[in-house]
Every structure is written in C-alpha cells, then in structure tokens.
C-alpha cells in the first residue's frame, strides 16, 4: 500500500523504459567517475601476498589496527627453556572438527621433570583447517595458538602441511605467554 505522500507512477514511467535508462549512460558515467576518483587518490589495494596490511609500510591502509582476535596461522608455543609446551594430551586433535591435526606422542626425555610425554610428530594440514580455534580452546597448557598472521600462499599441497619445526618457527612474535602460570 502506498503512503499518502507518494504519487502513484503511471504504467509508462516504470524504470528501464525510457531511452536514458535503456542506454545505461548514467550508470556508465557513475562508474567512470568512481574510477577517476580512485586514480586521483592513489592505489586502494594491497598487493597480497607480496605485501599485507600487517607490513609496516602498508599499515596506514589497514582499517583500524591489527585485530588480536583474528584467526590466522597456527604456532606451537615454547616454554621458558625453549622446548615445545605441548604435552601430547591429544585434546586438540580430538576437538578439531576438520580432523586436520595429527599428533604422535612419545616419552619425554628423562631430564624433563615437568611432563611424561611430548609430541614426536605434530602436523596440521592447513588445507583442511577451518580456523575455528577449537584446538586453541581445548589445549590445557596454552601450547597451540592461532595468530593474526594471514594465510600464506604456497604452490604445492606439501607446503600446506605444517610439521612441528615449522609450527615452532612460524610466527615468533606471538611466542609471548598469554595465560598466567597455574
């Protein structure tokens, strides 16, 4: 039902019926004006993956600041002695809905008095990962984290399977402790 202040349109005044509407000249003019404004203002895009908004030279293009809650690539956290914090409890592997984490536990060395096991193999298939963060939530010892580092472009499937060494060195800026010691 039309409101009282609107005047009903006549059948011959429908959109798209006039010659101006059918020629799309107004829309073409709007598109050219938009393109011209972007040409004057400089580049509006970041050339990913060569550069990201997390590069200091591109930081002024980011909307606001880096979001600490964004879910990017995983890391394995090291403890104060430089060892991985993972105790191979397999909770992250059980919590993963994409079944992309594989852990093979082994006995910890005799001089490690704080744990019985450690991961012999720790792999994440990043092609299957859905970046849900369940592994991070399930970990009782804060051993795995998702960082704001964006998805790394690779050229083969083998490069997307992250092993323990790559996860430990993936993003060293986020190795700082986040949870207080218990």
The count of DSSP E runs of length 2 or more, i.e. the number of strands, is 5
Q: Shape, please?
A: elongated
- Class from secondary-structure proportions: alpha+beta
Uncertain spans, ≥5 residues at pLDDT below 50?
none
The helicity comes to 10-25%
CATH topology descriptor of the domain at 74-174: Alpha-Beta Plaits
Q: What series of H and E elements makes up the topology?
A: HHEHEEHEEH
How many helical elements?
Answer: 5
Let me know the average pLDDT: 81
Rg on CA atoms, Å: 27 Å
| Major β-sheet profile | 3 strands, antiparallel
Q: How far apart, in Å, are the first and last alpha carbons? A: 65 Å
Q: Write down the CATH class of the domain at 74-174.
A: Alpha Beta
Q: Report the portion of residues in β strands.
A: 5-15%
Second-tier CATH architecture of the domain at 74-174: 2-Layer Sandwich
Looking across the biggest beta sheet, what order are the strands in?
2-3-5
Main features:
three-stranded antiparallel sheet, Alpha-Beta Plaits, 21% helix, two-stranded antiparallel sheet, 5 helices, 182 residues, alpha+beta
């Amino acid at each position: 039902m039309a409101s009282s202040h609107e005047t009903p349109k006549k059948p011959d005044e429908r959109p798209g019926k006039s010659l101006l509407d059918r020629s799309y000249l107004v829309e073409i003019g709007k598109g050219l004006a938009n393109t011209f404004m972007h040409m004057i203002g400089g580049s509006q895009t970041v050339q990913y993956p060569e550069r990201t908004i997390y590069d200091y030279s591109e930081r002024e293009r980011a909307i606001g600041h880096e979001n600490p809650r964004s879910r990017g690539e995983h890391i394995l956290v090291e403890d104060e002695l430089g060892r991985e914090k993972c105790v191979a409890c397999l909770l992250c592997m059980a919590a993963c809905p994409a079944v992309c984490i594989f852990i093979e536990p082994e006995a910890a060395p005799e001089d490690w008095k704080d744990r019985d096991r450690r991961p012999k193999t720790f792999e994440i298939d990043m092609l299957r990962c859905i970046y849900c963060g369940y592994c991070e939530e399930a970990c009782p010892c804060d051993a795995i984290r998702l960082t704001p580092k964006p998805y790394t472009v690779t050229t083969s499937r083998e490069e997307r399977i992250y092993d323990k060494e790559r996860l430990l060195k993936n993003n060293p800026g986020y190795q700082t402790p986040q949870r207080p010691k218990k």
